[in-house]
Amino acid sequence: MSTPDIKDLPFDSPVVPEMVDGAKRIQFCCRKGIACWNACCSNIDISLTPYDILRLKRRLGLASAQFLQQYAVPYEMEKDGIAGVKLKPAAGGTACQFMTPDGCSVYADRPTACRYYPVALLSLRKQDEYVDRNAYALVKENHCLGHAEPRSLRIDDYRREQGVVEYDEQGRGWRQLVLKKKSSGPTVGKPSVKSRQLFFMTCYDLDTFRAFVDSGPFKELYDVPQAEHLAMLGDTLEAEQSLLQFGYRFLRQTLFGEETIALHQAAVDKRRQHVREKALKAEREAAEKMAREEDAEDEGFDD
Predict the structure, then answer these.
(1) Which of 35, 36, 211, 253 is the most exposed place for a label (fewest CB within 10 A)?
(2) Domain that holds residue 60
């Protein structure tokens, strides 16, 4: 596919529409004292990955639900589709809530998008492929003077410097889910309300998902090895990382039928029987309703 000429784009985009790989050299440096210091953080539009939320809520000592309420706002990635989460700006403004005169107050746990800037990560998947490919694009905004700084390095080196490699590894399962849903389109259909709620809980409200995984109904249905199950229930960073990765498997199984989590056969049979009984009950009630309506019509005819 050819790259569009910048003059042909229907909008003014800060992203140069040229896909490059990690070997591409960029000239950039952001430092305190530069004239545009904090300009990016003064007007934010930052999408958060599930791992971003995990790191930030741990940094702030908050439960997932508290973090989402205070620092995040949901948005639709596509109409009537699965939800994404963005960082909520300061009340009555556009600035990041973590911005200070000295810079970011949560710098060690800053979101993926902040780490990447001025590089944009592009996750792509061809129709006939089952794996996603990463490419990069350069973001150039008029206010940013970092591109004039005398420092040159490869994108791969910049990613390592900014600590984004770990964030990409932890967020890859989520990006694959989003790509799979978008690329499937009408073949999957519009997700149900329950599916959207399940996606949101699993990806963004990790504390609630942990309680769900530790619940009786979950353990009755899913046959997760005890060691793996216990490793996900702790409060350490490693435990929550394991829980998040398990969550991506869980969503691939529940939303797309990719079965990687074993089920207890007795529970499966019980659920199937319950579904059958529910369907039969619905049919019986519909038949009885139809019979009552026919009786009422016959009575009126006789009269």
Answers:
(1) 35
(2) 9-182
